[in-house]
Amino acid sequence: MTDQALVVFDGVAKRFGAFVAVEKMNLDIRKGEFLAIMGSSGCGKTTTLRMLAGLEAPSEGEIRLAGKRINDLPTWQRDTPMVWQSLALFPFLTVRENVEFSLRMRGIEKSERRRRVDKWLERMQIAEFADRNVAHLSGGQRQRVALARSLVTEPEILLLDEPLSALDAHLKVRMQTVLSNLQRELGITFVYVTHSQSEAFSMADRVVIMSRGRIEQIGDPQEIYRAPRTRFVAEFLGSSNIFGGSVTAVGNGAVRVATPAGEFDIAANPVKALAKGDKATFVVSDDRVQLSNEKPAEGINAVRASVVGEEFVGATAVIHLEGPDGIELKAQKSHDELEHLNLAHKADVWLTWRPEAGHILPGE
Ligand SMILES: Nc1ncnc2c1ncn2[C@@H]1O[C@H](COP(=O)(O)OP(=O)(O)OP(=O)(O)O)[C@@H](O)[C@H]1O
């Protein structure tokens, strides 16, 4: 991957009548990166992708691919193939004919077509089904055909719109590995739209989080997870305890914030300078809090809460709690860590964390 932009969205907006599906967007997509676009339903992810594919025209702004304006370039003239959830394979054609299709459209001669199709059938491990009708394949096999069909033209960029959402959980994980490996080996740019945090965070180099047609945050998965910019991002990711209040003291790399759940010391955010009296919202990720049935010593960040429920998440469990003023809290811990605690419904527990575990949202 390089820092060079392959695609630039320069002030791109999309309106459908009076409705703004995508607000003025500035986004650079780097050459060779795996970029995931996430956000709740209707936030404009697919519209963004469709503008890049040439299936929607921007209402405003400019889209550039490798430095060239492509706003008015018809779909078939841009090399931006797209893989959909529905895959949109040609149902009456064989695997080979499906994969060969775009090469035929481009007038590539027969022996070259054969060479390239064979290469991609082999590459995607579907050569043994070459002459089978695509209707007679499993979900995973059809995925591979769709990928081969898109990649056979050896494009610089591949657009994927929820390509795995129709697959069962097991196959999803397998196809994630196939996609990540493929992207890294080919070094081409993937732009991947998904609802799924686990897909985005496990595969992408950078993640874009959208809300109501706007980009809320762009960053690598670790950065977004550890340092969300806004309350929307923190809530969307769903793994944070969120506190809002006002600053009562500043100093020594920390700020003191008074909230309805108590007063806490939180590491200052270098991106956002705060002064006494300012409003501040901070988050503490559910895996960075400690739980105890004992009242902690004075002077550390602590909230008394009562247990609402326990949710098993494989190797860990998330304990849901209710804090002062009805605030919803959670803690994610390994089963070992929870073993000696009383976590019965309504049991009293203390949630504690170090100032460094707190993150002040710079965008609030
Ligand atoms: N052709 C259209 N005409 C009118 N409104 C549209 C059209 N296409 C999309 N929209 C609206 O624009 C908004 C963004 O749609 P888009 O499909 O980009 O969302 P999304 O984030 O991909 O959602 P989902 O995850 O549900 O697919 C939605 O409110 C949608 O109803």
Automatic annotation (TrEMBL):
Subcellular location: Cell inner membrane
Signal peptide residue numbers: none
SUPFAM superfamilies according to UniProt: MOP-like, P-loop containing nucleoside triphosphate hydrolases
Domain ABC transporter: residue ranges: 7-237
Superkingdom to which the source organism belongs: Bacteria
Alphabetical list of Pfam families matching this protein: ABC_tran, TOBE_2
Keyword line: ATP-binding, Nucleotide-binding, Transport
Membrane topology reported for the UniProt record: Peripheral membrane protein
Annotated Gene Ontology cellular component terms: ATP-binding cassette (ABC) transporter complex
InterPro entries tied to this protein: AAA+_ATPase (IPR003593), ABC_SmlMolc_Importer (IPR050093), ABC_transporter-like_ATP-bd (IPR003439), ABC_transporter-like_CS (IPR017871), Mo/tungstate-bd_C_term_dom (IPR008995), P-loop_NTPase (IPR027417), Transp-assoc_OB_typ2 (IPR013611)
GO molecular function: ABC-type transporter activity; ATP binding; ATP hydrolysis activity
Family membership: Belongs to the ABC transporter superfamily.
Name of the molecule in the record: ABC transporter ATP-binding protein
Species annotation: Mesorhizobium hungaricum
